[in-house]
Q: What sequence folds into this?
């Protein structure tokens, strides 16, 4: 049995700081996805909501929240939370029920109304919460560990601040062409270098903001898609939600201890690389089959790591791939042609869904000035706190 499901519709609410409820944003995205699918809301049999969170804890029960806002009509509901991987988990939850025959049509929605500034932990004492410990004991706010990742690349591979700046330049150029992006202005490397230092060596323009926004997908079984008149729809062919493998030998905040490797050899593939590897295996493809990728650029340096983890190049060669223009629009394997988080910012439950929305538009040939010619296969990648993998393969 195929594990593919059809993407009948994709919709978004533009990213920004709008000062309204996340539910409003989600409803706009949901209605846009339904319109794109050519379906009315009563046709939906399942709603899966990616939970809106603060400080690592679920806020509203998102599936029911969106179903109520759209108008109760008896659909099943599911809600998921996996930090920044929540959107991929929501897609996978919908896919599983579609493949199990529990529904023919599902609506997946993620939306957020993020606080101003960088994310902070919720109040109270939680000494068993590694994220709380990371903030309270180490004082390591998110930009601090973004900076540590960057320093590690500089020490291991010789990456430079100029390399990091070029990631921002590339993504801002693509984001300037995206009507859903929050920041729609091209920037220069000089402007990146002139922005304030936040966590050395990273500057303000090296780090993504927090944003309001929403994204939604209408998914269906392949049989329903054919009955609906879509004989060759864009399909989700794999969803990877793997966790790390013991022993984990590379320090990766918010965890600030590693597993012991005294009795067990370290795994051949690290955590982030294993996320993509599982997606490739399920879809029956490899990195050589990709036409484009959307990755989780919390910082400019982290995007370079994803090149390597996706197998687009060998370890340590991410900056070289960037410098050669391979990951820019018009390059061999464009990455973050949406503009990435550099242009959108974080709307936590929505961003993994938004990545898929971008791939859907590209594979349909509807991305306008951002179009990757002939795109047929794309992959997303991001990572949620507490060991949540997230990767989706989309094909046509």
A:
């Amino acid at each position: 049995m195929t594990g593919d499901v059809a993407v009948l519709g994709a919709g978004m609410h533009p990213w920004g700081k709008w000062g309204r409820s996340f539910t409003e944003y989600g409803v706009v995205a949901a209605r846009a996805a339904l319109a794109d699918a050519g379906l009315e809301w009563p046709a939906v049999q399942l709603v899966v909501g990616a939970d809106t969170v603060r400080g690592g804890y679920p806020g509203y029960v998102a599936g029911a929240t969106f179903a109520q806002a759209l108008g109760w009509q008896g659909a099943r509901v599911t809600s998921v939370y996996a930090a920044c991987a929540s959107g991929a988990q929501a897609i996978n939850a919908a896919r599983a029920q579609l493949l199990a025959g529990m529904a023919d049509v599902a609506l997946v929605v993620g939306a957020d109304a993020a606080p101003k500034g960088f994310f902070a932990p919720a109040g109270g004492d939680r000494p068993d919460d590694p994220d709380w410990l990371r903030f309270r004991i180490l004082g390591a706010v998110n930009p601090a560990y973004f900076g540590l990742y960057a320093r590690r690349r500089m020490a291991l591979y010789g990456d430079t601040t100029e390399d990091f700046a070029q990631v921002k330049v590339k993504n801002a150029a693509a984001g300037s062409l995206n009507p859903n992006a929050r920041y729609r202005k091209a920037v220069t490397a000089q402007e990146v270098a002139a922005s304030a230092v936040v966590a050395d060596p990273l500057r303000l323009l090296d780090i993504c903001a927090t944003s309001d926004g929403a994204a939604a997908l209408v998914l269906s079984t392949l049989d329903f898609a054919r009955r609906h008149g879509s004989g060759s729809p864009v399909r989700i062919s794999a969803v990877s939600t793997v966790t790390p493998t013991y022993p984990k030998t590379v320090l990766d905040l918010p965890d600030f201890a590693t597993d012991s490797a005294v009795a067990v050899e370290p795994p051949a593939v690290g955590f982030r690389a294993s996320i993509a590897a599982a997606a490739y295996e399920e879809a029956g493809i490899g990195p050589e089959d990709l036409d484009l990728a959307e990755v989780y650029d919390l910082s400019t340096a982290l995007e370079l790591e994803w090149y390597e983890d996706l197998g687009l190049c060998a370890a340590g060669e991410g900056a070289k791939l960037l410098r050669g223009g391979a990951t820019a629009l018009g390059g061999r394997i464009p990455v973050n042609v949406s503009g990435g988080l550099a242009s959108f910012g974080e709307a936590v439950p929505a961003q993994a869904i938004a990545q898929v929305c971008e791939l859907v538009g590209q594979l349909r040939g509807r991305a306008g000035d951002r179009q990757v010619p002939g795109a047929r296969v794309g992959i997303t990648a991001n990572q949620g706190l507490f060991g949540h993998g997230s990767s989706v393969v989309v094909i046509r």
